[in-house]
Every structure is written in structure tokens, then in C-alpha cells.
Amino acid sequence: MKHLHMLLAAISVALFTFRFALLLTNPEKLKSKWLKISPHIIDTFLFVLGITMMIQYSLYPGQVEWMTEKLVAVAAYIFTGYYTLKLARNNTMRIIGYLGAMGWVILVARIAMTKQNFLF
Ligand code: HEM
């Protein structure tokens, strides 16, 4: 289950990077159906597996500090990702948003692997 979760996380970041690159180079292609649907499917499975493991290993946010921090970092990654693809109004802002999102996702992976808080 953990390896599938990690694989889905990698695919999710790759799809985000691909959509970011298309937005800068060929935004028309972003309208294709598979690019609109597949991120939602991947991310739903990523979350379902994460929540399943959370329950299985009793790693509840609020009780297990690194889990709290991981979820805060996941939320920040989702927001910066949304900002990059939807809210940013020009390419400079999109690039800044993308770099910010990558910083958060690296933090998520670091917390998941070390099981130690990093920021708080
Ligand atoms: C961007 C999103 C995410 C990334 C990049 C990510 C990454 C990872 C990685 C790399 C591991 C394996 C750590 C290891 O080597 O042991 C892991 C494990 C785990 N993740 Fe995630 N994850 C993400 C989202 C989530 C979400 C949304 C949840 C919960 C709602 C979650 C819950 C868990 C749990 C419970 C484990 C198992 C921890 C353990 O080994 O005991 N993850 N995650």
C-alpha cells in the first residue's frame, strides 16, 4: 500500500509539472480531456490510500505531530498548485507558484520519510 501511495504521489507531481510546462508553452493542449480528468483520479487514490494508512497505523493529525505537519504541507502544496495553474495571471507568477509548490512537496516527502517535524 505504501509503495502504491508513493508511486501515485510521483505520478501526481509529474502530471502537475507537465500541466505547468504546457501552460507556459502550449496552453491549448491543457483542454484535452485526459489532462483534465486523470489528475483528479490519481489524487483521489493518493488521498484514499494515505487516509487508509493513517487509520491502519493510527497516525492521526493532532496526535502524531509529523502527520499534522505533513497534512499542513499537503494543503500548502495543493493551494500553491492551484495558484500556479489557475490563479496566476502571467508566466512570472506561474513560475514563482511552481517553485513554491515544489518546495512544499519536497517538504511533504521529507516529513513522510523522516517522520520528524521540520517547521514546527
Ligand atoms: C503530495 C502528497 C503526498 C506525498 C508526496 C506523500 C509522500 C509519501 C511518502 C514518500 C511516503 C513513504 C514514507 C516512507 O518512506 O516510509 C508516505 C507515506 C505515508 N503517507 Fe503520504 N504523501 C502524500 C499525501 C498523503 C496524504 C494526503 C495522506 C493522508 C491523508 C498521507 C498519509 C501517509 C501515511 C499514513 C503514510 C505511511 C507512514 C508510515 O510509514 O507509517 N500522505 N507518503
TrEMBL record:
<keyword id="KW-0472">Membrane</keyword>
<dbReference type="InterPro" id="IPR007360">
    <property type="entry name" value="SirB"/>
</dbReference>
<dbReference type="Pfam" id="PF04247">
    <property type="entry name" value="SirB"/>
</dbReference>
<feature type="transmembrane region" description="Helical">
    <location>
        <begin position="95"/>
        <end position="113"/>
    </location>
</feature>
<feature type="transmembrane region" description="Helical">
    <location>
        <begin position="6"/>
        <end position="25"/>
    </location>
</feature>
<feature type="transmembrane region" description="Helical">
    <location>
        <begin position="71"/>
        <end position="88"/>
    </location>
</feature>
<keyword id="KW-0812">Transmembrane</keyword>
<keyword id="KW-1133">Transmembrane helix</keyword>
<feature type="transmembrane region" description="Helical">
    <location>
        <begin position="37"/>
        <end position="59"/>
    </location>
</feature>
<protein>
    <submittedName>
        <fullName>SirB2 family protein</fullName>
    </submittedName>
</protein>
